[in-house]
Each structure stands twice: as structure tokens, then as C-alpha cells.
Design goal:
This protein is an alpha/beta fold. It has helices at residues 13-24, 59-77, 99-112, 147-153, 175-188, 231-236, 280-287, 339-348, 356-359, 399-415, 434-440, and strands spanning 3-4, 6-9, 29-33, 48-50, 89-93, 117-120, 141-144, 163-167, 170-172, 192-195, 198-204, 207-213, 216-220, 223-225, 245-255, 267-270, 274-275, 298-299, 304-307, 315-319, 326-327, 365-373, 380-383, 389-393. The strands form five sheets. Strands 5, 6, 7, 8, 15, 16, 19, 20, 21 and 22 form a ten-stranded mixed sheet that branches. Strands 10-3-2-14-24-23 form a six-stranded mixed sheet. A hairpin with a 2-residue loop joins strand 11 (198-204) and strand 12. The radius of gyration is 22 Å and the shape is globular. The two termini are 42 Å apart.
């Protein structure tokens, strides 16, 4: 281990994707992590992907479109060993006044490059998704305004469902298979993985010269910070205070033994803010706990779930970032005793049959991780700090879907080749622009789910 062209800090999905892209360019590379590859935040992923992103420009949509292109190419090359599907994301509202919000979201996404908006007022114009695979499926989105269409294709939804917006270039995959495929490809080109902690980065003459691991000096001309939830700590090793913070996000898995969620369902998302239907006794109990009192008010839209596993599985995973706030990164994650109950009740608004599990709950399995993010929820990909220092991170829960496209940007930066136009939207130096900083004050929807 006398020296490498590149040393990457972090072997989550960002690090292994960077290793794959950089070794494809011929770099000798060392990937370093205290943990086994793909075993921390990447291991707790919901494994979903989408090109459905709001924003002031189409940069996020362009990045996701390119990243999905690369993921689909890998799926084709491996006979879909990564189990990629394109079932879509189904945003459901029960509030007739919010139908206009879904319509506007579809128009804006189309303008940003996510694909056309199709509006349906009868069942014969809507094409349902296929359960497996991804070829031959539409992009863009379908806005279903007809309740007969909703009942025909999604009979488990609430009778009060007023409309649904089906974003189509979306779905999920096996994150572990994707990550291990990228890692093995990098290893086949000579990349090495070392389970250890990078103690320091040596800078000489204004550029990266080496890293220190277990007291050993390893020469390198390039240090890539792909440290996930530890992005900020790793940045300090090169004298950089990255503009990121972390939120704790949880995921619950439970056995749907009543078969409420069909095994071929898309990702199902409640698009309505609402107050949860607690009983009087439950409201009194929650009111007595300061940390739980916020659960009595109006909670944000975004509770979502999907079937998990093969056709014979009964598992469902569900998520809801109803209490997202900046926190310190602590492992293992602190307990969240109400998460399953809250998320289940949030989903009941669009899937009322889930109420059966409120009365006789299955045993949940809860895990999660930290979404490390920038203020506007766009990643950091590019040079930062001394020469030879790079960052690829701040993928706030969307690392699985964005890593391949972001790694391509990183490799292009490092090779000096021409960058795609959207790459500059993720350059760390964007915060040096006072006009950009002013935009942050009124950024609006960041696309966080």
C-alpha cells in the first residue's frame, strides 16, 4: 500500500459508485471505511428511485435521468440482477382542493424534463404499470381525475381519494445488488478495499499528498470525501467546513398478513397534510409527553409505503419524515417508540384498511439512518479545499438513485473532460455566488420525501 492515484473515504453507495467510475478511467484506487461496504446508511435505504424532482431549474431531473440511464444499462448487462422495476410513485390526495396542486406539480415536472403530463378522466386512457422489469414503460406522469379509474386500478385506496398523480420513471431496486455490482466491477479493475479509519489527510504545497491510516502514510494525489453521514467530519481533515447537516429518518417493515397492500402496487404516497385520528385517550397520553405533543397537530404530507420482497413475501415497508430536524449523528439510532403507530395512521388516510393493524399490530422492524443534506437538498460533487481534494455527498436519502450519475460527474471533473451542463448546479463553489445564496432564502420545495 505504498500509494494510489485516489483514496476514497467511505464505502457506502456513493463511495462504491465513485470507485467504479474512477477505476473505469484507469485510476489506481483505495476505498477505506471503518465498516463493511454498504453496511451503514446505504443498508437502511428504501431502495427507491425517481426522476421526479421540483426545483428552480432542471438540474436535479437531469442528474436523475442520467443516473437512471446508467442503472438501466447495468440492469440490462446483468439480466436485471439488481431487480429494477418501474412501478412508479403514486401521489394520492383525498382533498379535492389539492387536485390543483397535483396538476401543477405534473406541469412543473414536465417543464423540467421529467416527461409529459397525461390527464385521465376515464379508465380506457390509462396504462397501468407492470410489476416487474422496466423496459417499455412510459415516462412523465399520469394524473387520474376519475374515481372509477382509481377504483379499477387501485381498489385498496380510500373511497374519498379525489385524484392520484402517477409519476412513471420511478420505482425501486435491490440497493445491495446495485452496490455490490459496482464494487465488484471496481475490484475487477484493481480497486482495493481497506476496513479502517482515515486519521488524517496530509496536504503539502496546497495539494493533497497522502492519507494516514493506523499510523501508516499512504501517498495519493486525490482524496475523495464520500463519507455519507460523516461528510462534515471528513471535510475538516482537509480544512473545509462543508455546508451540510443531518436529519434522522426511519423506516418500518411489517408483515401485511391481511394482504392489504397488493404485491404489485407502486410506491404509495399520501399527498395531504393532516391531523392524525387519535382516540381521546391517546390524545391525552400524547399531550402529557413534551416530545410527543407535536403529533397532535397537523403533520406534513409524505407518508409512503410499498411492498417489499418477492411475490411470496408479505412484507411492507413504510416511511414518513414527519419530524425531520437537524440532529447529531449517533449510532445506533435512538429509539422512536411512536414511529410505527404514527406512520400507520398517516397512511390510513389513503389506505383505510390499514386501521386493522392499529387494533392488532404486527411486530414491526424499525431501522433507518441519517439524511445528510445541503440547505436546498442538492448534492455536493466536485473539488473543494486544497488541490486534489474532492467531495461526493449530501445525498439526502437519494444516494441509491443518484450515485451512478454523480460518480460520472466526479470522474469527469477529475479527468478534466467537458462536464454536462447540469454538473455546475452541484459544484461546492456555488455557495460563493451571492446571487445563489440569495436564492436559498426563497428556494421552496426541496423534493424531500
Amino acid at each position: 500500500m505504498s500509494g494510489y492515484d485516489v483514496v476514497i473515504c467511505g464505502a457506502g453507495i456513493a463511495g462504491v459508485a465513485a470507485a467504479d467510475a474512477l477505476t473505469a478511467c484507469g485510476a489506481s484506487l483505495l476505498l477505506v471505511d471503518e465498516h463493511p461496504p454498504l453496511s451503514l446508511t446505504s443498508n437502511a435505504s428504501s431502495e427507491c428511485y425517481r426522476n421526479w424532482w421540483p426545483g428552480r431549474d432542471g438540474a436535479m431531473v437531469a442528474l436523475m435521468n442520467r443516473s437512471i440511464d446508467l442503472i438501466e444499462a447495468l440492469a440490462r448487462a446483468t439480466n436485471n440482477a439488481i431487480a429494477l422495476n418501474r412501478r412508479g410513485y403514486l401521489y394520492v390526495t383525498t382533498d379535492p382542493e389539492r387536485v390543483a396542486v397535483l396538476r401543477q406539480a405534473g406541469k412543473e415536472a414536465a417543464a423540467l424534463g421529467a416527461g409529459p403530463l397525461r390527464i385521465h378522466a376515464s379508465p380506457d386512457t390509462y396504462t397501468p404499470p407492470i410489476a416487474h422489469g422496466f423496459d417499455g414503460q412510459p415516462d412523465g406522469a399520469d394524473l387520474i381525475l376519475d374515481r372509477a379509474t382509481l377504483r379499477q386500478f387501485f381498489p385498496f385506496l380510500a373511497d374519498t381519494a379525489a385524484a392520484a398523480l402517477h409519476a412513471r420513471r420511478c420505482g425501486w431496486l435491490s440497493a445491495q445488488q446495485l452496490g455490490m455490482t459496482l464494487l465488484e466491477r471496481a475490484r475487477s479493475r484493481g480497486a482495493h478495499f481497506l476496513r479502517a479509519r482515515i486519521e488524517a489527510v496530509e496536504v503539502a504545497g496546497g495539494r493533497v499528498a497522502a492519507v494516514r491510516i493506523d499510523g501508516q502514510r499512504i501517498a495519493t494525489g486525490a482524496f475523495v470525501n464520500a463519507a455519507g453521514p460523516f461528510l462534515r467530519q471528513a471535510g475538516r481533515m482537509v480544512g473545509v467546513d462543508l455546508p451540510v447537516f443531518s436529519e434522522r429518518h426511519l423506516k418500518v417493515a411489517f408483515e401485511d398478513h391481511l394482504e392489504i397492500i397488493p404485491r404489485d402496487a407502486p410506491l404509495l404516497i399520501c399527498a395531504d397534510p393532516h391531523i392524525l385520528p387519535w382516540t381521546d385517550e391517546e390524545r391525552t397520553m400524547l399531550a402529557d409527553e413534551p416530545e410527543a405533543q407535536m403529533l397532535l397537530g397537523t403533520l406534513p404530507a409524505g407518508a409512503h409505503c410499498r411492498p417489499e420482497g418477492s411475490a411470496g413475501s408479505a412484507w411492507v415497508i413504510a416511511l414518513w419524515a414527519y419530524d425531520a430536524a437537524p440532529v447529531e449523528e449517533v449510532f445506533p439510532l435512538p429509539p422512536s417508540p411512536y414511529f410505527f403507530d404514527v406512520t400507520l395512521r398517516g397512511l390510513m388516510r389513503i389506505i383505510p384498511a390499514l386501521e386493522a393493524y392499529v387494533h392488532r399490530p404486527p411486530r414491526p422492524s424499525i431501522d433507518g439512518g441519517y439524511y445528510t443534506k445541503t440547505r436546498e437538498n442538492r448534492p455536493l460533487v466536485g473539488p473543494v479545499g486544497p488541490r486534489g481534494s474532492w467531495v461526493m455527498g449530501a445525498f439526502s436519502g437519494y444516494g441509491i438513485m443518484a450515485a451512478c450519475g454523480a460518480a460520472e460527474i466526479l470522474a469527469t471533473h477529475m479527468s478534466g473532460a467537458a462536464l454536462p451542463a447540469y454538473a455546475m448546479a452541484f459544484h461546492p463553489a456555488r455557495y460563493d455566488d451571492p446571487v445563489y445564496r440569495a436564492h436559498l432564502e426563497s428556494w421552496g420545495d426541496t423534493g424531500q420525501l
